[in-house]
Amino acid sequence: MSAVFGRHWRLFGISLSALFLAAAPCGFSARADTLTVHVDSARLLKLPANVATIVIGNPLIADATLQNGGLLVITGKGYGSTNLLALDHKGGVIMRDTVQVLGPAADHLVVVYRGIRRETWSCVRECQPRNTLGDDQAFFGASLGQTTARNGAAASGAAAAAAAPAPR
Fold this sequence. Notes:
This protein is an alpha+beta fold. It folds into two domains: 72 residues, Immunoglobulin-like; 50 residues, no CATH class. The chain is 32% helix and 36% strand. The protein is built from three helices and ten strands. The strands form three sheets. Strands 1-7-6-3 form a four-stranded mixed β-sheet. A three-stranded antiparallel β-sheet has the order 2-5-4, with no helix packed on it. About 15% of the residues have low confidence.
């Protein structure tokens, strides 16, 4: 009876060891090196000392801007993942992380499907079209065209106001 009992404990110990060894390479370290940001959103990251250069593997997925005081602003541009490298003045790698960009935060978003066509709306007080990757081309283009025209009008209005003589 004790031989059977001892064998069970050995098998339990071997199984437990195998479980820890299998979980170790992919568990904790991979999660610590992944930064998650939503598309069209920004996240702040405090960098280690002596960072001189930031490299983003795919700038269509994420953008990074180095600020004073060792702050990095990471902005989600498109869905997917890419790598982030922080280099010192000599080109040595100080930090390497993965940046994973997820879809927009679901708060106040309504997604409408018209057959295979998709539209995304931002509904805070009232619903307004939102430019979201993956939306129907006609919907996305019309919404983007209105936003571009509005921004252009605001910029030309600001330039005209700046060029106008000051009132006396």
